[in-house]
Write a structure and sequence with these properties.
Elements: E1 5-9, E2 12-17, E3 45-52, E4 63-67, E5 71-76, E6 79-84, E7 95-100, E8 105-110, E9 115-118, E10 121-124, H1 128-142, E11 146-156, E12 159-164, H2 171-181, E13 187-191, E14 194-200, E15 203-208, E16 222-233, E17 238-241, H3 244-251, H4 262-278, E18 281-286, H5 291-302
Parallel strand pairs: 2-3, 3-8, 12-16, 16-18
Antiparallel strand pairs: 1-2, 4-5, 5-6, 6-7, 7-8, 9-10, 11-12, 11-13, 11-14, 14-15, 15-16, 17-18
Helix pairs in contact: 3-4
Amino acid sequence: MPHPTHLEIAGVHFVIRPPAQCPFRDAGRIYRSFLTEAPAPRGGLRVALDTTLEAVPDTSRLERVFETPSWTLFREDAGYCLAQGPRGPDLPPPWLARFDRSFSRGTVHCDEFLIHEEDGRRSVVNPVLRRLDQLLVMYALAARGGVLVHSTGAIVGGRAYVFAGRSGAGKTTLARLFAASGAAKDVVLLSDDRMVLRTTEEGLEAFGTPWAGEAEVALNRSAPLAGILFLHHGASNEIRPISEREAVEQILPLVSMPWHDRDMTAGVLATCDAVVSGTPAFEFHFRPADDAITAVLDFVRQRGGGA
């Protein structure tokens, strides 16, 4: 039997079992640091998924709960169904996943579109990676003190700084500037597109995720959260503190939110409140040049962080 895939993302442990006699294809470089063979820790968050090549179930009679251009959530008696958007007219989705109400156990039906054959051997693209795992982390953490934020993240002097912004705000640009600068040996890039912020026993922490942007930065590391800087384009580099109210107004549009579920939404909002009340927040108006990184490192030093 093919071996299952084990993933660890922001403290959520995935066990993904491939279809019988059909192993998964290589997960790729982006996921390399998130793969693990260690069992889920006792009392930790665990998501167990079976995959099958059986036909994708019909959803035409299910209640449609939430829909985006890329995926749709349905409700059924035993739980929920998540389906990736159809590949085209009259074509089934590449995958459809059925879950219990806790989103901690389920079965993913893979369309034949995901099967790859070469030299007489069959393998299947892991349907959980790059979309479904992201949604499941959002659900798993919603009531457990975790949020997924559109942001670049870096560890500077042992603490994490999150640079949050909408698409086009400069997250990828800033990550590339960090990577090219070489200005500080102890700067560790975590992500260039999405970070998880969580309340843990040690306090607020920031986690890298495998959902990278164009700079393809994705590292399975975490560190105590030292500050959130909201990105804005500017003619020069300026970092200025903002109030908790301003921070709330800027972070909410950047958080992945399960709006269809009142309890989950309440959990995410509570975590956002904990983040902005427990973390210094700033606006970072910057220009896309090397001196933007200098401005960040000077800012960290002034706050007592080594860089």
